[in-house]
Each structure stands twice: as C-alpha cells, then as structure tokens.
C-alpha cells in the first residue's frame, strides 16, 4: 500500500513504550499461535474465547516490568497504522455524510504485552479487537509477525490494513446499532443459533473492510488484495479448528469459514455498496 508522505491520523494512542505491568503469554507453538488467530477478528467475542485457549497453552506467563524504547521499525509501523486509520476516517466520513449520518472517529490503541480497556483487561493473546465500551481498537502489532512467519499467511503490510479496517467495521456496527440488535437477537437462542448471528456480524465487518479497500484503490499496490485474502483464509473457523483439534464443528463457528471470510471481503471490495452487506439475511 502506498502510504509514505500521506496524512496520518491524530487518533492513535501509542502505548508500546509504556510498561504494561501485567501478564503476557510466552512460549509459542501451535496453541499460542491459535490463541492469536482465533481472536484476530474477534470483535466483541475476543475476550470470551481467549481464557479458554490460554489454558491449553499451559498457563505460561511472564511479567512485563519496564518500558521498552521503540525501534526505528516500530516507529515506521506506527506511522503506517496512522495512515491506514486516516484513510478509514476519510472514506467512512464521506460515506456516512452521503447517507445523512455523522461518522464518529474511533481511537486506535497500539500496545505491547497487555492493556486495560473499558471491556476489561486483555493480553497480546487476544489479538486485535474492538471494544464498544470505549469505542477503541486495540492492537499489538507483534501479532502480524506471528501470522506471517508461523501460520503461513502471506507477508506484506496490507494484512495490517485489512485487520484495522475489519475492526473499524465493528465500530461502524456500533454506530449503526447493528451490534446491539445482534446481542438482543441472541437472547434466548440456542448456542448454535447465537453463533450464526455472531458469524453474520463478523462477516459483515469483513465486508466493510472490503468496502474501505474499494474506495482506497488509488493507494493499493499489486498484491495487496491477495495479502488480505490470505489473512482471511488463515483465520477462518474451519481452518483454525482443523489445525487445532483435527476436526471441524460448524455449529461452534463464531467468525465464519475461510471461504465465507474471503467471499464477503471480495464482495465489499467489488461493490463498494454498503447496502450489499446483507450477511444477517444470508447467514442462516
């Protein structure tokens, strides 16, 4: 993605140089990676899943005591994130204005190790997530190295842009009342039916990420969309379950299959039309 020299958002809180003073997951292996991947697009479900998976990793933890200065690479990554967030601000502000609405810009928090949010405490194991309580996106950028080097997703900076835009999709759902309606609709439903609604919410966020990419075509490089689709493929429920437990249980899906995630991102990218994000009508 072309980003050097472009506008950077002021709505980024960079806490990476601060002491977290909390527990972070260490070690690694496939379970550690799965903890990250299963929550990468977790939205409001991220923190419910993480504790269960952390137990599988063997409860390894360490204390983060001191602040770590940012390297030149860290600073460059932060600048890139600020440009991606600025692009989201510009595009969604325009779309909302055209529909007679006002887009409230969210804050994006970069952290390392652990972080406190209005939705509770979270560690790096939560992966990137959106907290509706404070309307902030939280990201530990070390996740993307794990995604690339240990789980096989394609490298490249656009995977980061995709994830940010997916989490902004959850912010849009909060602004439009979709998240609240989904939670209300889950009440009294069986686990399987409630999970289908969660899948619809996640796939709609994928769709919104595609819509953002549609309106940002002038800044995309060759291969960017393939990078996004590779990341979507890696974090499908079926792909994760197959690697983690050797079997696939569709009724337990909360985020959608690899095929679904790629399909809805591509649909958003191709159409650029928010009205076509009809995941709740189509995921039954």
Automatic annotation (TrEMBL):
The keyword Hydrolase does not apply. GO terms for cellular component: membrane. It is found in: Membrane. The chain crosses the membrane at residues 21-42. It is a single-pass membrane protein. Pfam families: Zn_peptidase. Its main location: membrane. It comes from the Bacteria. Keywords: Membrane, Transmembrane, Transmembrane helix. PANTHER family: INNER MEMBRANE PROTEIN, PUTATIVE MEMBRANE PROTEIN YPFJ. This is Neutral zinc metallopeptidase. It comes from Flavobacterium flavipigmentatum.
């Amino acid at each position: 993605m072309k980003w050097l020299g472009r506008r950077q958002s002021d709505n980024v809180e960079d806490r990476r140089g601060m002491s977290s003073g909390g527990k972070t997951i260490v070690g690694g292996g496939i379970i550690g990676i799965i903890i990250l991947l299963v929550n990468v697009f977790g939205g409001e479900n991220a923190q419910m899943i993480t504790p269960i998976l952390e137990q599988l990793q063997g409860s390894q933890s360490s204390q983060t005591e001191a602040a770590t200065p940012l390297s030149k690479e860290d600073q460059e990554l932060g600048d890139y994130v600020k440009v991606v967030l600025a692009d989201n601000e510009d595009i969604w502000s325009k779309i909302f204005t055209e529909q007679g609405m006002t887009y409230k810009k969210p804050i994006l928090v970069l952290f390392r190790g652990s972080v406190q949010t209005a939705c509770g405490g979270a560690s790096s194991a939560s992966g990137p997530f959106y907290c509706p309580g404070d309307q902030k996106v939280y990201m530990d950028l070390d996740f993307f190295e794990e995604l690339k080097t240990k789980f096989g997703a394609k490298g490249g900076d656009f995977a980061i842009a995709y994830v940010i835009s997916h989490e902004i999709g959850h912010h849009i759902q909060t602004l439009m009342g979709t998240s609240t309606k989904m939670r209300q609709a889950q009440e009294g439903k069986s686990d399987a039916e409630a999970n289908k609604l969660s899948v619809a919410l996640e796939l709609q966020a994928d769709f919104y990420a595609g819509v953002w990419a549609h309106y940002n075509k002038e800044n995309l490089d060759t291969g960017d969309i393939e990078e996004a689709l590779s990341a979507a493929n890696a974090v499908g429920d079926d792909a994760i379950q197959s690697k983690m437990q050797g079997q696939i249980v569709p009724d337990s899906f909360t985020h959608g299959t690899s095929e679904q995630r790629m399909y809805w991102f591509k649909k958003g990218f191709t159409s650029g039309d928010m009205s076509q994000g009809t995941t709740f009508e189509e995921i039954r």
